[in-house]
Amino acid sequence: MTTRNLISYNINGVRAALKKGLDEWLQEENPDIVCLQEIKATPDQLDVSVFTDLGYECYWFPAEKKGYSGVAVFTKVKPDAVDYGMNIEKYDKEGRLIKLDFGEISLINTYMPSGTTGDIRQDFKYEWLDDFYYYINQLKKEGREKLIICGDFNICHKEIDIHNPKSNKNTSGFLPEERAWVSKFIGSGFTDCFRFFHEEPHKYSWWSYRARAREKNLGWRIDYFMSSTNLDKQLKDCDILMDVVHSDHCPVKLSISI
User: Fold this and answer.
1) Which of the residues are catalytic?
2) Which of 12, 63, 152, 248 has an alpha carbon 20 to 30 Å from 204's alpha carbon atom?
3) Residue 180: pLDDT band by 50, 70, 90 thresholds?
4) What does the pLDDT average to over 33-47?
5) Short-list 234, 254, 257, CA closest to 33
6) Nearest to residue 228, comparing CAs of 130, 78, 108?
7) Residue 183 has what pLDDT?
């Protein structure tokens, strides 16, 4: 087996992140696979050679709406197959999921909806959670039983995952129904890879741009690697790279023996 390093990173706009040195950081970090969320661009809107010159094959799934949402995967390991979306139009037009198969392992990069703009999008988020849960279980029934799922879930699971749980108990991203869904999802056969290795508090992956939240570490842990429990023995490490700054999020890194 070979240890592979994977990065999941909501970059809040790939063009903006490149202006802040994303490509130089990737060259230094040198992950095998990079899963980006909220790319906010189509590949023809930037010079993709900054990534291909680093040895990556690039798979893009942008949203139909310009400057919005979208996911991409850059990989130095050639996939056997790539699938774009869940075959549900209302999600796929927002570019919310891409799946790559590597042998018996499937890697799913997802940018889950936010409900912070009001009831309509919160309802959309609940619909997504139900449909995503069904999608994952269908994959299992089809024999894809070794799954690595990463991305921005837009949900803090437990009180340890948010800087102020009491004042945020009625806030989208920390609602009881959302947190219960994460518990249900993990209970269906998944491991929260970061918590598999780290039980300490105050480790977050997103901070508001307001009130110097990042400087004060007033954050939320909403970016995850989740892996099938049958991969637990292959997990080597998972950490949140809080010092890396190209976005209001920071990267999550998974090392796994494959």
Assistant:
1) 152
2) 63
3) very high
4) 97
5) 254
6) 108
7) 98
Q: What is the DSSP string of 147-196?
A: EEEEEE-S---SGGGBS-TTTTTTSTTS-HHHHHHHHHHHHTTEEEHHHH
Specify burial of residue 196 (Cβ count, 10 A radius: 0-12, 13-18, 19+).
middle
Per-residue pLDDT reduced to its tens digit, 148-168: 999 999 999 999 999 999 999
What token pair was written down for 164? 């102020």
Structure tokens at 107: 């890697």
Query: pLDDT digit string (tens) for 52-94?
Result: 999 999 999 999 999 999 999 999 999 999 999 999 999 999 9
Q: Tokens 């802040």 label which residue?
A: 20
By the 8 A CB rule, do 150 and 35 touch?
A: yes
Length of the chain in terms of residues written: 258
Q: What is the mean pLDDT of residues 170-175?
A: 97
Tell me phi and psi for residue 21, to 5 degrees: 95, 25
Q: What is the Cα–Cα distance from 250 to 44, expressed in whole angstroms?
A: 25
Amino acid at 110: T
Q: 13 φ, ψ to 5°?
A: 105, 105
By the 8 A CB rule, do 70 and 61 touch?
yes
* Mean pLDDT (whole number) for 107-125: 96
What is d(CA 25, CA 20) in angstroms, rounded to the nearest whole number?
Answer: 9
Query: How confident is the model at residue 105, as a pLDDT?
Result: 98
Q: In order of start, what are the domains of the chain with their CATH numbers?
A: 3-257 (3.60.10.10)
Q: What does the block give as tokens for 136?
A: 């994952």
Instruction: Give the pair of three-digit tokens for residue 88.
Output: 């549900």
